[in-house]
Structure formats: C-alpha cells, structure tokens
C-alpha cells in the first residue's frame, strides 16, 4: 500500500476558505474567575453526545484568555440571535473589555449568560484535548436555557448571514 503523503497541497488561506463553506451558527463562550468575566466568539461549537450530554468547541492556542478558560469550573455557551452581530464582533476582539455595554447575568453555575440568547448551555469541563493549534474543549451540559422564538445569527464564507425560509 502506498503511504499517503501528508504534505499539504494547499496553504492555510485555501483551507480556511474551504472550511468557510460549512455554514455555522455563532456562540459566545463565557466564564468567570477571580479576574472577572471572560468571553470569546466561536463558530467551532458542535453537539457531541446526548447521554451524557456533551458539547464541544475549540480555542486557538494564541487566545489571551485560553489559560483562564482551561482552569474555570464552569462556562456557558451562548448561542447568538440574529441582530447580535455587534456582540459577536466585540467578543472576537483580542484583549478588549468585551463585556462593556453587554447585558448578562450569572447563570446557575456562575458562568455569564448573555441576555437575550437563542439558547445557552451551561457546562462543566469534561475534557480538554489537543487539537493542533487549537485546544478542544468538551463540556458536560448541566443547565439549559432555551427560547421558543427567535432566529440564529449565521456565519458563512466569512460573513454574517440570516436564516432564509424554512424548508417544509
Ligand atoms: C465568527 C467568528 C468565529 C470565531 N470562532 C472562533 C473559534 O471557534 N475558536 C477560536 O479560537 N477563535 C474564534 N474566533 C476568534 C476569537 O473570537 C478571538 O480570537 C478571541 O475573542 C480573542 O480572545 P482573547 O481576548 O482571549 O485573545 C472567531 C471569531 C469570529 C468573528
């Protein structure tokens, strides 16, 4: 059997462009420690398991807040609503005072729940895995907050998008 050549025939920009063809929602992962609240916009959120209830997201190793996130006892994954582009933008600015002007409350676990959201998953850390230049966080969901109404903020090919008509 011929060994598969692992040398990439594409550069990181091409890979990023290709990955951008996968449409996602947007979440703000938020936690609280002695220094105060911290939060990061992610579109790497995904469901993992129903029993036990597990979700995941990945964080770049260069994130200023990564060492703090790796130590917290709980974090909240806040799923953004359409119209919350400004929140997504402010939570993607490295090192900024991301919570300025943002409405939030402490959830059951103490992790910041943004208000409003489409849904919020409060989690305790289940595992941290090596994900190359990212760390993969797997969280065990311990509390759910779900809105019956509302549409998600979407992300596709590097731009925010809105949900179109529902397929019947
Ligand atoms: C739509 C969108 C999705 C993002 N998804 C991720 C992600 O999944 N993982 C990640 O590490 N950074 C992601 N980022 C970038 C981070 O939000 C940004 O680097 C981070 O807030 C900087 O945090 P820091 O202040 O801890 O350095 C995303 C940014 C945007 C605008």
UniProtKB/TrEMBL annotation:
Entries under InterPro entries matching the protein: Flavin_Rdtase-like_dom, NADH-dep_flavin_reductase, Split_barrel_FMN-bd
Coiled coil: none
Domain Flavin reductase like: 19-162
Keywords: Oxidoreductase
Pfam families: Flavin_Reduct (PF01613)
SMART domains, per the entry: Flavin_Reduct
Gene Ontology molecular function terms on file: FMN binding; riboflavin reductase (NADPH) activity
Record bears the keyword Oxidoreductase: yes
SUPFAM superfamilies in alphabetical order: FMN-binding split barrel
Protein name, per record: Flavin reductase
